[in-house]
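Annex B. Sample input.
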Amino acid sequence: MNEISLFGIFLSAMIVNNIVLIRFIGLCPFFGVSGRMESAIGMGMAVIFVMTVSSAVTWVIYNYLLVPMGLEFLKIVTFILVIASLVQLEELFMKKYIPNLYKSLGIYLPLITTNCAILAASFLHVDYSFSFIQALVYAIGVSLGFIVVIILFAGIRERLDTAPVPKALAGYPIAFFTAALMSLAFLGFKGLFGL
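Annex B, continued. Sample output.
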């Protein structure tokens, strides 16, 4: 995997293999927070921070601590602890400096700890044997892909709230149909870069 350019890694992570619409990872915050644009942007920013920093920290811990000591089997526990610590820091920061966003994210902010998209990004850069820079570019691509998709989805859901949707499809059913159509649109990029 090391022969792919940084731009290829970024574009593949962001669009071609989008973590939400192609890999179907991180759907809980995707559906839960995308009802309003403000919440979607806030969640996207929170995910960008946690995913980028946690990928950098987990890469260092994995390559300089776990692998040399033969403790690769501890990567799940280690990665979860790193992510949980970063989310706690972010939650404290938001509670103090951005209380409105903190309240609007509600339960979904602490759930970033269990957001499988963040954990998946850390596992995938290990599986792909990326260098530190490649892992960082990959994490930025995945997180930007997440925020682009959640903002697009929030915009569509806000429009759907005023659209004449049949009563049986109102709410989450039409959201699932919309996500499926978005997924098909992103599937059109498959094969653009090989990751």
